[in-house]
Design brief:
Length: 415
């Protein structure tokens, strides 16, 4: 039997179902480095086109920064290419320890442990520190990787309505009898760009003797006055017990993640977290790059300041043009189109005008909330933003949505 025609047909039918539902994801091939100006092949086999990238997590514009690239080269020369081992056998170099210490200092925590990715950090941390006597209480919109980590853990799980502190308090009361309680949230939510109410959450955690867990992947490096993250913005530095974050976004954008927080929790992860114990950690070349990123960010807030100014400029431009945006002040700026097909057509028209910004629709965002999620970078110059704005306005005029309200757009296109 093996991989028979019957087996093949089962998968072919499922793939066709995905296509029929309009949910088939097609990748775009970038022929350049990751930056504001990129060269894109889309669709596959078409020619390569120049475009301005408006949807990368390259918030600080460090993905191809010459100093980071040079540091990575030096790391390659001095510590080689691979470790060929997990950390606890013979896969730990001095630079891995150095990076953990530097991240601890940057985030203002007690200790840090590296993981191959933030996905792995989230997958490993809960199981390592909780048992079936404990409870995890998570915001309903947390990242998929947190949901997977929760699934892998034997502790009880409950949720609270997105950013609803009354509901969270109710759940904390409900679970007051549990041995350990962990409140779980993203710092900045990736789809809407809104910020968790971490100050209120920290107070509730104090009141109910719960730990606070924050995934700051869309915040580390640029949110807060000196870019430490959401805990800095909300003025609760030192009060988050567990922070997970990625090096795959603002902090150089290569790969890797970590758990940073209370030293006993970090130690428990070192002893027990399965993605740490059974998977190679970050390659030396990447460690060297992230070390340079942290050095750059610790010297000056220039990049996050530029990002903030760029974000204000972009939001103001879109608002004045008459687009419906999600409210917020982070570099995640969702342009709301509500209708799934409109979001795809809009994105394709933008690409024809040299602007690369992807449309998101169900199930990535709730039904009727399709959008183009733009993400601003310190790598953008004003001329990039002006060119992108011109294109958005052109396409907005084509679909006659400028100055229209949410309800008017839904009336025209459906939700
Ligand atoms: C991107 C992201 C991750 C995954 O990060 P990787 O290091 O790429 O695995 C985890 N959590 C959140 C909130 C993210 O946005």
């Amino acid at each position: 039997m093996g991989y028979s025609d019957t087996v093949r047909k089962i998968y072919q039918d499922q793939i066709q179902d995905i296509k029929d539902a309009g949910l088939f994801k097609q990748e775009r091939f970038i022929h350049s480095t990751q930056a504001a100006d990129i060269e894109v092949e889309f669709p596959a086999g078409a020619g390569v086109k120049k475009a301005i990238n408006m949807c990368a997590n390259n918030y600080l514009g460090l993905s191809s920064h010459p100093e980071v690239v040079a540091a990575a080269h030096a790391g390659l020369d001095h510590r080689g290419y691979g470790m060929s081992s997990v950390r606890f056998i013979c896969g730990t170099q001095d630079i891995h320890r150095e990076l953990e210490q530097r991240v601890t200092k940057f985030l203002g925590t007690e200790d840090t442990i590296l993981f191959p990715s933030c996905m792995d950090a989230n997958a490993g941390v809960f199981e390592a520190i909780l048992t079936n006597e404990d409870v995890m209480i998570s915001d309903r919109l947390v990242h998929a990787s947190i949901i997977d980590g929760i699934r892998l853990c034997g502790a009880m799980h409950d949720t609270f309505k997105h950013s609803n502190m009354k509901h969270l308090e109710k759940k904390l009361e409900l679970h007051n009898d549990k041995r350990l309680k962990v409140v779980i949230t993203d710092g900045v939510f990736s789809m809407d760009g809104d910020t968790a109410k971490l100050d209120e959450m920290a107070d509730l955690c104090d009141k109910y003797d719960a730990m606070l867990f924050v995934d700051d992947s869309h915040a580390s490096g640029f949110i807060g006055k000196t870019g430490r993250g959401t805990h800095e913005k909300c003025d609760i530095m030192g009060r988050v017990d567990i922070i997970t974050t990625t090096f795959g976004k603002a902090l150089g954008g290569a790969s890797g993640g970590c758990v940073s927080g209370r030293k006993e929790i970090v130690e428990m992860c070192r002893q027990k977290a399965r993605p740490y114990l059974f998977s190679n950690t970050i390659a030396p070349v990447v460690v060297s790059g992230v070390l340079k990123v942290l050095e750059i960010l610790s010297k000056s807030t220039e990049r996050r300041d530029k990002l903030e100014a760029n974000t204000e400029y972009w939001r103001k431009g879109l608002t004045e043009a008459g687009f419906v945006l999600k409210e917020g002040d982070t570099p995640i700026v969702p342009v709301m189109l509500f209708n799934a097909k409109l979001s795809q057509d809009f994105s394709n028209d933008l690409f024809d005008l040299g602007i690369y910004a992807i449309g998101f629709f169900f199930p990535v965002v709730p039904k009727g909330q399709a959008r183009i999620r733009t993400q601003i970078s310190a790598g953008h110059e004003i001329h990039h933003l002006d060119q992108a704005l011109d294109a958005f306005i052109k396409v907005g005029k084509k679909y006659d949505i400028l100055g229209k309200t949410k309800n008017e757009i839904i009336q025209m296109y459906g939700a």
